[in-house]
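Hi P.,

Sorry for the delay on this. The queue was packed all week, but I finally got your sequence through. Input first:
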Amino acid sequence: FVSDLVSILKDDNRLKVIDTLLSMINKDNIDAILLLATNAQDNKEFEKSLTYLNKALTIEPKNPEANILKARAMYYTGNKTEAYDLFEKNLTTLNRNPRNLLYYSQILAAEGIDFSKAANMGRQAAFEGYGTYEYIMNLADIYYKMGRYDLCRGESKKARHAEEENPYPYFRLGMADAKSADRERWSDEAKENLTKAIELGLSGDNLKE
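Then the structure:
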């Protein structure tokens, strides 16, 4: 067993390591199953995550985390109507769970379906999530998609204060400055923030925006 464990831990694929260890220890441990589901989603493996979540829900049908993650996995596997239904059900059964509010508001804003509802949930998520970076930045992104660049600037500044070495708040703040109705007033600050974002390692699709 020890030699097998050493071999497994040398694997660079974190998800594979956890999956293999789970099969060696306890296949019905719901915490371990949810860890696998979360890791699968982190790796954009939503079909695999859904398999884990269905198993978790056979063990504990009312588990809050499993129901929230399942709604998200269903959306990203193309089952959007079912995903919306489950998110809505979670709003009732899980009250103001910040993670459910976060994921649901992200999806509504990305789809452009109901910005008002997305913003309301985003604000609730930021409050229930104690104003941590992820929730504040989500609200900033929603405001940006709504064209409320003034509100986006405010939330982006909060996020920047929370994570000063993260390039994304500088990027979002710079873009809000650049698109503001009073863009001439903020042009220098826009350049400064966007330059800072690049210096801190901004990459991917954000560079195209």
